[in-house]
Amino acid sequence: MARRYLLVKVVSERPLSSEQFGTALIGSVRRCFGEVGLSRIDPKLVRFDPNQSEAIVACKRDGASELQAAIALISEASEVSIVPLVLRVSGTIKGLGKRKPR
Amino acid sequence: MPKFVDLHVLPRVEDEKSCRQMADLLRLAGYSTIGLTIPTGLLRERISFLRHIFQEAGIETALRVDLSSGSRMELLRLLRRFRNSYDIIGVKCSNPGVATVACRDRRVDVVFFDPRNHKVRFNHSLANLLRGAFEFNLLSTLLRETNGIFSTITKQAVIAREHKVKVVLSSGSNVPGMVRSPSQIAALGSTIGLSKEQSAEGVSSTPRSIITRNSSLRSSEYIEEGVRVVLPKAR
């Protein structure tokens, strides 16, 4: 099954753990699209770098747009205000690294 | 690479730190231009200072004002007063009379509705009248509450799609925490029922065309529709 990988910059007041962000991510997808949507999108937190505040999230190819919408509606994780910005979407993890600096 | 525009950013004008944070986040998110929405009575020095903050972060600004009135006559008076002072005029439609005038008047660039206001809704007749663009303030409405709001926005999106009206997708953010990337805003547009093309254009070409058109209208060369001053080329 083809997948899409999203590079997400998480701007937060306090450092977050991968569990905290992962819980917020799954919660947002479930709240927006329900259990059926969650299984259709199948989001997975592949990598989370607390120092850079960057995460790589994988999902099924057809659910990339819905996952971006769900990520947009995350405003806090474990009572910490966060700003999740999807910076790039790619078909491979390697492709995410090719992001040109803005 | 397309240039992305968030046409509705409402920074807290008195809070410099918040404005700087917002500017940095907007740049990180990938925007090149924003519609800087300010209150009408703000001093010129303060406006220049705000624009300078965003320009320092590498973001172009277009001045925008949101007009909200209780009657159609008042709206017409406000349009006469403010049209020439701002790059973008947005009208918040609070009742059916105001909505009709705002949709029909060519001086209005964007119209938007409060989904919590049950007195007036975007409907087929307003979509037929609309000359400007219809704006969805996605983050400011969906981040606060989703109960019932989502279905209202979805109905508006279905009408906008059916009548092929110009759609602008904005964040409507007034704090840095509401800033999201253009691809996220476009994805939210697709989720509420807009076509992928409408969503993509709603964060790029549609708002950019509004800014370009208005800047040419406000230039000193513009006389009236179809007439402008053309200076002879220097030999």
Features:
heterodimer, A: 102 residues, alpha+beta, Alpha-Beta Plaits, five-stranded antiparallel beta sheet, 3 helices, 5 strands, 36% helix, B: 235 residues, alpha/beta, TIM Barrel, two-stranded antiparallel ribbon, 10 helices, 44% helix, 20% strand, globular
Secondary structure layout plus pairing:
The complex is a heterodimer of chains A (102) and B (235).
Chain A: E1 3-12, H1 18-41, E2 44-49, E3 54-60, H2 64-72, E4 76-77, E5 80-90, H3 93-96
Chain B: E1 4-9, H1 16-29, E2 31-37, H2 44-56, E3 60-68, H3 72-82, E4 88-93, H4 96-104, E5 110-113, H5 124-129, E6 133-137, H6 138-142, H7 149-162, E7 166-170, H8 182-192, H9 196-202, H10 205-217, E8 222-224, E9 227-228
Parallel strand pairs in B: 1-2, 2-3, 3-4, 4-5, 5-6, 6-7
Antiparallel strand pairs in B: 8-9
Helix pairs in contact in B: 8-9
Task: Explain how this protein is built.
- The complex is a heterodimer of chains A (102) and B (235).
- Chain A is globular.
- The longest helix of chain A has 24 residues, at 18-41.
- With 102 residues, chain A is of the alpha+beta class.
- Chain A has a five-stranded antiparallel beta sheet.
- Chain A has a single domain (3-94), classed as Ribonuclease P, Pop5 subunit (Alpha-Beta Plaits, 2-Layer Sandwich).
- Chain A has helices at residues 18-41, 64-72, 93-96; strands at residues 3-12, 44-49, 54-60, 76-77, 80-90.
- Chain B has ten helices and nine strands.
- Chain B has helices spanning 16-29, 44-56, 72-82, 96-104, 124-129, 138-142, 149-162, 182-192, 196-202, 205-217; strands at residues 4-9, 31-37, 60-68, 88-93, 110-113, 133-137, 166-170, 222-224, 227-228.
- In chain B, the strands form two sheets. A seven-stranded parallel beta sheet of chain B has the order 1-2-3-4-5-6-7, with helices on both faces. Chain B has a two-stranded antiparallel ribbon with strand order 8-9.
- In chain B, helix 8 packs antiparallel against helix 9.
- Chain A binds chain B through residues 9, 11, 31-32, 65-66, 68-69, 71-73, 75, 81-87, 89, 102, and chain B through 25, 27-30, 138-139, 142-143, 146, 176-177, 179-181, 183-185, 187-188, 190-191, 196.
